[in-house]
Amino acid sequence: MPYPLDDRDGHRRCRDCGEWKSLDEFCANSRRPDGRGSYCKPCFNLRSKVSYAKRTREKHGREVRQPPVVPDGHRRCPTCGETKALADFPRNRSGRGGYGRYSKPCHNEKGKESKLRLYGGSREYHLRRRYGIGQREFDELLAEQGGVCAVCLAEDPQHVDHDHRTGWVRGILCFNCNGGLGQFRDSPTRLARAITYLRGTTWQRALIHPGVYQMCSPTRGRPPSPRS
User: Fold this and answer.
1) Using 50, 70 and 90 to split pLDDT, how confident is the model at 219?
2) E strands present in 88-134
3) Any domain includes 69
């Protein structure tokens, strides 16, 4: 015999489980004056699953496949079919519970497949997403530089240098030069001061006669300590 639907200070008794719960814990029902149904959300979901299984059995003559039981703090990856701890899934703020759907190995493999299908490979994907150019534009810019780093002239540079304020690509640099500009924060003032500093602290070789050079001491700094 169903329980009476007496409301008490914004609460209602669920017809199935018989528990008193707040109206917010009941499913929406536009046909009722308060906009809430007779069953709490867990009971309503259970009823919906049972009803769906019954309709599938009667209409199509097959049973609904039951999902595997997953312990708390775990998730089943639909690709590899393994049940793993949540720590084995990548973080995803839009995903259920803050984690992605696929385990980390499967997620990475799917990412590689997508990059290969959409961009032809990870290199093209990286260039397009971060710098807005492809491998073809990269090769054209490198050819304009003579195939060398735009700063130190080292051969076969592989790093795209861009203006961090505007995003515009400036050239192709080697690893050291690209990192050096980043360490100096792309500041001409800091670079100029570094040049002045080096000139004032580095020994220079001065030509005093054809074929004869003399080492000139820096204007400031200390000589290295003698080795013992």
Assistant:
1) low
2) none
3) no
